[in-house]
């Protein structure tokens, strides 16, 4: 059995590479001791993401492990199957329009430029100074969250991605605080409507208060943390590969290719949301009993050499799409376009504003945040 110990959390890729070759479907113990089945190969993960025999509804769970989430926050899109999922996602999609996202482009560009203005010229931290605050600015504007309240979400999110079982009490406290705030925010928006996505969701017919609160939680958590991780990885990749950075600046390499390869190379959300086997199922010759908790490793799938040759290399010229960083099927991330745009704008702003930016210590290993749920840089120090 695979134990997701400290070494695995710190650098999962060597272990995942072995599993891809030798044991693509295996028993594993999560850092909190929960027993799971881990699926790693690209073809298996992609198929499983749309397999109706794998449910997101925890009523199919055989172990009924307690969640740190308050019951209300558990009722979000990634914890439900159709038809409830279809009903709520349709409402989200109607509010989360391409026009609304595109309308934020200039705000994002200006926001990135202003964040770059504040960076010190020597040993600036691009995670703390750009990758983290930009998505918080964007999702805060999109949902209409007061600027003075936004730092709370950064603190809450940092607590929630911690893998340490000893942090369970802090996680529950953070969730309780976030839940109380979101309930108050929904009621405030209902009383004082604004031209933001949250107001649009409130005025859409068909969402209860609890569904609204759970939905806003999901949009905040996914829209902030995952995007920040993607920005940081794209910046790291360009700084480590100055040839690619130069090609972006001269127009011979699209930033979109860099962003997609960064999302594949280091996938921000390491595992898809857990599934439960509705019946006994067989994946890659391995039988998984009904009621089992199944984790689909997006990180492993995106480095499967059967799909992506030389998968450990950052190669924006590989010309192969199809990465699973945003999932696949009906649960494909509703905020994918927004995340992609932020990654492209942030990296472009840095390259053109500071064309000579370089890593403070180019030989040092990247400092990744310790989390088994997400993969993002803790810091990225550069000379500008």
Automatic annotation (TrEMBL):
Heme in keyword set: yes
Keywords carried by this UniProt record: Heme, Iron, Metal-binding, Monooxygenase, Oxidoreductase
UniProt entry tagged with the keyword Iron: yes
PROSITE patterns attached to this UniProt entry: CYTOCHROME_P450
Molecular function via GO: heme binding; iron ion binding; monooxygenase activity; oxidoreductase activity, acting on paired donors, with incorporation or reduction of molecular oxygen
Protein family membership: Belongs to the cytochrome P450 family.
Descriptive protein name: Cytochrome P450
